[in-house]
Task: inverse folding
């Protein structure tokens, strides 16, 4: 079995250019009606991780969302746009701010489509997911291509984590704190949701300690489209300088038959892969460097090779987002005097999930390595 995906060059977020390139990407794989029936109800799921402006490259760019809305309007679909970004304590007012600052609210208002909140959820298998999945016949997945400090890559598969009920996200992070286990949960979500179409915003991607403000934007000038999220994430792994199955979600999803991770069986239409792979591989998140040493050695030394969050005090605005984000209540605000406070980590409780780094809007949390990790050059 083969999968088809398209890769199209796009060097700007200007609305008319984006729309033209999105059309090209979708037409290369057979046109919108191959994936979405006219007049159906469609949920668009961008990656809206936090309340931050589009230039930061943290959220899916609003003009990508606009372009997809325009294409779906032409086949008279009823369109809903939403994401559940508020894992940080599950506060719904935060979603309004995310929608405003990301530029998504403005696009939805201008295009006359409904911007929804994932307030109601129901259990589907053992996952608590938004009921908008019941309301809509199709999901169009609109991830941003970024590195991720826990899963290494966030794109087609990881983006669907936003469909999980806000408070339940914390529980999942707490229960499944090993990358293998958490990746299995992400693949469960992908299997349950199975988006009809995935379109990746890789015009400005992110490398380094992504997926939030600790990562670095990286211009790639690409859009990718296809119905096989595993194939898309596998191609993105190659673009990063990795092998597709270095990303655990690709490996697990391919083993379950949910998509293709073998590049020999992925038909890439549009740009040629060898021509778009950058000369310089992606800078990976610090924590992923552990993969550089052989697994038996990692198992032997894992008690001593550790990664912890560390505060960059000058950047910290004491906003408290990290405290709310921590699934283990390992962070507190320590008051040193009436006017002076600081963020404190309890490393006995910390499970190195880096939810705090992801939640921090001010790049104030970095990765601290244990002595042995430094000695072995990780
Ligand atoms: S302190 Fe940060 S890395 Fe540690 S458990 Fe809490 S959120 Fe995760
Ligand atoms: S570390 Fe970041 S999230 Fe935590 S209080 Fe400081 S600025 Fe806020």
Result:
């Amino acid at each position: 079995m083969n999968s088809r995906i398209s890769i199209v060059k796009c060097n700007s977020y200007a609305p008319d250019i984006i729309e033209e390139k999105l059309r090209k990407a979708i037409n290369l794989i057979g046109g919108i009606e191959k994936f979405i029936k006219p007049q159906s109800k469609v949920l668009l799921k961008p990656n809206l991780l936090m309340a931050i402006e589009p230039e930061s490259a943290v959220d899916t760019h609003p003009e990508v969302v606009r372009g997809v809305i325009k294409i779906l309007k032409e086949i008279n679909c009823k369109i809903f746009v939403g994401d559940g970004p508020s894992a940080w304590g599950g506060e719904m007012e935060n979603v309004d701010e995310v929608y405003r600052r990301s530029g998504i609210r403005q696009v939805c208002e201008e295009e006359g489509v409904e911007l929804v909140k994932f307030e109601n959820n129901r259990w589907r298998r053992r996952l608590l997911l938004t009921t908008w999945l019941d309301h809509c016949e199709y999901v169009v997945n609109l991830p941003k291509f970024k590195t991720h400090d826990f899963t290494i890559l966030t794109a087609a598969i990881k983006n669907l984590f936003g469909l999980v009920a806000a408070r339940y996200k914390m529980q999942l992070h707490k229960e499944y704190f090993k990358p293998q286990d958490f990746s299995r949960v992400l693949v469960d979500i992908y299997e349950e949701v199975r988006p009809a179409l995935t379109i990746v915003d890789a015009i400005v991607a992110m490398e380094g300690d992504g997926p939030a403000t600790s990562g670095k934007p990286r211009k790639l000038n690409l859009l990718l489209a296809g119905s096989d999220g595993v194939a898309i994430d596998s191609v993105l792994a190659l673009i990063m300088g990795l092998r597709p199955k270095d990303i655990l979600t690709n490996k697990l999803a391919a083993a379950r038959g949910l998509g293709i991770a073998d590049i020999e069986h992925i038909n890439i239409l549009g740009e040629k892969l060898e021509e778009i792979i950058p000369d310089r591989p992606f800078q990976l998140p610090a924590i992923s460097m552990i993969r550089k040493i052989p697994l038996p050695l990692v198992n032997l030394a894992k008690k001593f090779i550790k990664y912890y969050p560390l505060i960059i005090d000058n950047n910290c605005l004491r906003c408290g987002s990290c405290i709310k984000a921590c699934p283990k209540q390992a962070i507190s605000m320590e008051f040193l005097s009436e006017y002076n406070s600081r963020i404190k980590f309890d490393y006995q409780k910390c499970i190195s999930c880096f939810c705090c780094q992801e939640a921090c809007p001010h790049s104030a949390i970095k990765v601290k390595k244990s002595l042995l990790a430094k000695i072995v050059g990780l």
